[in-house]
Amino acid sequence: MASSAQISHQSAFRFRTSSLAMPVLALSPPLTASSSSTAVPDHHMHSKQNSSDETPIPDDEQDMQLYIQDRRVIGYEPLVQPALLRHEIVSSPASLRTIASARYAAARILAGKDDRLLVVVGPCSIHSPAQAIEYANLLKQKIPQWNNLLIVMPLITPRLPLSEKPRTTVGWKGLINDPDIDGSFKINKGLRLARQLLCDLTAIGVPVGSELLDTISPQYISDLISWGAIGARTTESQLHRELASGVSFPIGFKNGTDGSVTVAVDAMRSASNPHAFMGVTEQGLAAIVKTRGNQAI
């Protein structure tokens, strides 16, 4: 049996990506603030206009508190609870079979017990659920021809059809963060669109993979994912390694932005061990998350 180090090195090279023809969304112009945003308190507007660290320190005690806290925050909007969204958009029995069978097969491939190659196939970003479903139907027709492959369609990931898209600088952040592609950042709408799309794709019989960008959004969609990814920009992040240690599906780490594979191998070793970190529950409550470690990497 191969050692954990050997398996980690093998896993780092096992994933391949290919692409079928599909329109890819071009980056949108610089985003602007939405006129539909919730009202912003006066002190927040003041903070936005005078957020420079060179702003004179106020003498008044109340002004001092406003000066110290949230100087660069415009406002807050409530986020739908993960449990409520899961209750609202429920996966079908067909979806559950697709997800479970793909997770099982992917884990066996990573463990060297299945000779097939795990291939992630799809466009870089998804901005149109209708086009994503059309693409999935075409892909589904081809899957029976490739018995030596386990096909996974990316949906929210790094170089996969995205719900969330990591950006090196600025630009469109993906279907979840900005579903209308206009800078309005209707994240609740994006979460609903992404979850419904995942349900639709898996109901067709196409497994879906996604990049994990934070410790909150997985609570909304992780039950619909068959394979996860940690991108080049976050492979070195301890927070993402901790998150990967607790997800219920196989996961892969991309090499670092400098091309180093060592970073990915170190991340795999870390994620295979138990961790404890701060996260949220399905009810949206802040909590200490304790994990067992993920061996399917």
Automatic annotation (TrEMBL):
Reactions it catalyzes: D-erythrose 4-phosphate + phosphoenolpyruvate + H2O = 7-phospho-2-dehydro-3-deoxy-D-arabino-heptonate + phosphate
Q: What class of enzyme is it?
A: transferase
Q: Which UniProt keywords apply?
A: Amino-acid biosynthesis, Aromatic amino acid biosynthesis, Transferase
Q: Which Pfam families match?
A: DAHP_synth_1
Q: Which domain of life is it from?
A: Eukaryota
Q: Which GO terms describe its biological process?
A: amino acid biosynthetic process; aromatic amino acid family biosynthetic process
Question: Which protein family is named in the record?
Answer: Belongs to the class-I DAHP synthase family.
Its recorded name reads 3-deoxy-7-phosphoheptulonate synthase
